[in-house]
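User: I'm putting together a teaching handout on how sequence relates to shape, and I'd like one worked example. Could you take Thioesterase from Polymorphospora rubra, show the sequence you're using, and then write out its predicted structure as tokens right after it?

Assistant: Happy to. First the sequence, then the structure tokens directly below it.
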Amino acid sequence: MTAPSMDVELWVRRFHPGPAWGPRLVCFPHAGGSAVAFHPTSKALSPVAEVLSLQYPGRQDRLGEPCLDNIAELADAIVAVLAPKLDRPLVFLGHSMGAVLAFEVAVRLERRGVVLRRLFASGRRAPSRVRDESIHLGPDAELVAEVQRLSGTDESLLTDPAVLSIVLPALRADYRAVETYRHDGGARLRCPVTVLTGDRDPRVSLDEASDWADHTTADCDVKVFAGGHFFLNDHPAQINDLLAAELSRPAG
């Protein structure tokens, strides 16, 4: 199998036209997720920003490409494909694995002199907080059970053997990427961070969410929502309002 394509149009999806001015919101999906997860976000926020959603290799229309199972490799690739999109202020939104990936991309962009307006880190503990996790090493049934526990995937997809055979490779690769990720301990962002977390998320405690403050020299605030790991699906209007307020804020 060849290396993943670096075609910008394969990596970066725009579902709705946005204004020809102002910031860009770049959305990073969760493990096993795809760009379409942020289609509702794009629809809601396209009046105030150009909303872009990332499509990682190895899923949906990129099924024929090899998955990347390393956060650093994914981040390096995303920095490369975002190069034509750096001419406007950037806001990042990442959920779960996407939050870690968004952070690592932001770190790399800062080394190039590009500082985000804000990072929204959703459903993920701070990069420095490590848990001993090895679901990616277990059998398929264990991986599927974990996804069911987090309630982030249509149950019908997880019980159809034909569909499972298609989605499991990307899911396992993503779990390997995020479970083996280790923050290098040095990099801190210069942009503000807003942390979004669910009050019943088995993957993130409030302390683990609050420690995102250690990863920026700017402000860090934590917004707690009722719900589990995919709490954002239960509060779309409230979360879109938060994003819109940042995207509509005058520059400077």
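A couple of points you could highlight for students: The first helix runs from residue 8 to 11. The chain has one domain: 8-248.
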